[in-house]
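Inputs:
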Amino acid sequence: MSLLGKKFKLVDDFNQAKNLAYHLLPSRFASLDDGRYMLSNEVGEYLVVDRPKLEAFVRKQVGADTDFYHDLKSKHFLFDDDSNVAIDLLALKYRTKAQRIAQFTALHLFVVTLRCDYTCQYCQVSRQTDDKHAFDMSEDTANKALDLVFKSPSPAIKIEFQGGEPLLNYSLIQYVVTEAKRRNFEHQKDLQFVITTNLSLLNDDVLAFCQEHSIQLSTSLDGQEELHNSNRPRPGKNGYRLTVDGIKKAQNFLGRDKIGALMTTTEKSLSQVKSIIDTYLESNLDCIFLRPLSPYGFAVKNQQAHKYDIERWFEFYKEGLDYVLEINKQGHRFVELYTQLIVNKLLSPFSTGYVDLQSPSGAAISAIVYNYDGDVYASDEARMLAEMGDKKFRLGNVHADSYQDIWLSDTLLDTLETSLSESLPMCSDCGFLPYCGTDPVYHYATQGDVVGNKALSGFCSKNMKIFKHVIGLLEDDSEARQILLGWVR
Amino acid sequence: MIKLHSKGNEPLSTITHEKPFIGKITTNPDLPHGLRSQHTLLMSSASDIPDNFGLVLLAHDEKCEAKENTIRLTSELRYLKEHDVIKFYPDILKIDALYRKNANHNSFLVTEQCNSFCIMCSQPPKDIDDHYLVDDFLATLPLIHPDTDEIGITGGEATLWGDDFIRMIQAAKNHLPNTALHILSNGRNFKDLDLAIKVSKVKHHDVMIGIPLYADYSQLHDFIVQADNAFDDTIRGILNLKRCQVPVEIRVVIHKENYCRLPRLAEFIARNLLFVDHVALMGLEIMGFAKSNLQGLWIDPYDYRDQLQSAVETMARAGMNVSIYNTPLCVIPEPIRCYSTQSISDWKNDYLDECANCTAQKQCGGFFSSNLTKTSNYIKAL
Amino acid sequence: MKEHELNFDVRVFSIETIKRALYRFSDKCSFDIHLKDSDVTVKIHTSANDDLLAKIKNEVLDQDLRDTLVKETANVRTLILANAFSNTGLIQ
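Outputs:
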């Protein structure tokens, strides 16, 4: 019985879908937990459904007048004859997500030296401390690298200085920063600089320079003193003390938003996540990145062991995230960066810039590495692989190869094409595909080819666990959901 | 509430106008003679009536000697001031206040015809030829004070005028180069890309098209506007306008038929129409069809506060500009009160007695005058 | 290491469906697959528990749904991608 005037027709009168039938739009699903699935569309919108609902959806048996039907239609899982804008909108959304590919290479890593004053147990980089110049990047190499940097179509460029310990070649950093800024007058990119450093060489000159050029600092803080020093021994000194003091100094001089810390997880870390987080709180840091187990022992002989390690790391991550959420519930904003990244991937119409979780792979598209000797690598992992003897992902050299040679090299293009998630077994129909990535270097190193068998893959196992956990939180824990939504950028 | 039209005007002399006269009000009796015929002199006290003004309005009750075109202004309209623009109908002695310089918003109705039939329409469509409204708008534009911040074009559906619609935008740009232009449209005719291109070619310095979207799926939206394919047409219209870089605002009137889907509509907008320039979530104005269909439409805004909060937060989080219109602060959840604005045109804006005790009255938008008899059960001074 | 056996009717589940489902368990088991008439026999070699058989059977069901999804949406997917990459930019 309509409550509206006689002139007005009812809602059913406006349904042009013949026989109330509908058609499916491209979608994938993945099992979430016992009895539930997550259903995702081509552009990463998702719904959590139980199996009967999932089956009804695929078998085209969902009732036209149900909320579930309306949700499926509105989120572009199905379309019917009453409307034909779905395809235009999906196409627009797909382009938005794919935009980052056209604006490729935002992150350029300059390995300015292999020399280092630390002896971290998980470092793959050969540390040379005698012949100063053999393992330092030269101005000539830097210039050639900068030529390539400014060929990038990306409107935003981030130059990150790595090593060894980059500050051991501080004069080159100064050179690159001033030269890049000079060249940028012409290109007008949004240019940013980061130095990853252990902070032991952070003196007033360096701080002043960083302040002048708005350079950000990124350091390693693995946990409380005993853990940190055991992971990252600094011959003759207390590395932990140096790091914590350096952080404080940088915060005071440059501002809290100009210095961040990353941690590397080792065997020892696995039982200490709360104390690691506490260390970060004590140092007034407002975020932590609970990174997976160090790739030390990267080329693992026994694939099973690697996957088992993922199980243990995941417990570490869950415990850490729980603690972080607890901290937030008590009114203090503290972000776990990997979770923030995943939440952004789940909810954002844009793609994120995180190199290691992209398809097509972030190799060269999101980031590229210029080694001290001018060799160009598709990613940091590719460089580490080369340090261990396998130069498969070396794309060329700044002194010998042109921009086209490097970015259009067969090595790169074949890798990108072969490892595209949409073409891979298990990935192509996985519900998490829109949020996940492909890691050709990792799979090459662990399984011998850039695709790998995902059932054996630690990369896949880790990501699936995290997706399920985060989606579960968003779905079932309203307090956690509020906090996580607050982390969306 | 103030009245914008009145017939209660008394002629005090012969009226030489045969057709309606649109004139700008002045209170200066010494206006140069060359300007007088286009102007309406407003006199608030008795004194000699000067010659040659297009119209003389006496806003007082004293006896006066009047020669021609002198009218005693009804008390209802005595709020009129210098710079306001009026339309005088000599046959029925009616005066319309077309433009008021001190109004918080000046809107111009350019037609009552419409190609939709929204169930809550506050300006029900009429199938008549009212092109004179376009002429009046074009005649009024040169008389509007150049310092005016913004004017609006409403209807009915203004785009039904085709090229005249474009002409109106061009005229607004020509005569008022410092005034923003806000146009209300159902957006459906913009599914024709050419129309969108024509709008953008005018290169109006500050135009925005306000387009309603009532649901996140076609069947419900089409029902609310009572037209098949309206959802598709509207979405296509929005996309075309944005392809031509014309600013677009999405307006959502909230009532019983669509409040449940409001959070999903917000998600739909945040994912599919992220590039629109503004989203307004609006309380119901109980006029026209909204009044006759009230039983099917009314829901206490307090009862949809959760959906409103969810919708605002979804879109704000996505970086969109969001506002809440036409809803009193006391029924809006505290965390989203900052999105509320004083959106109701002053002439139809009122408050309840309860509001006199409210600490937030100055920030609150209050009520539509037409809504005073049907308000939320939860109105309470803050 | 134990050996189990599962049987499927190829008229109900295609060989592709079955293979794709089994692939997801290649970390825990190895398989021998035989087809005779319409009967597919899968010999499973694993050191995992019985629970696994139920999981494999459910995965076959899931994979069957996936196949339906892919087949029914292949055309419209091409249409969406073609639309996405056609040259419809901003109009100046």
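Remarks. DSSP finds two helices and three strands in chain C. The beta strands of chain C are 2-9, 29-36, 39-46.
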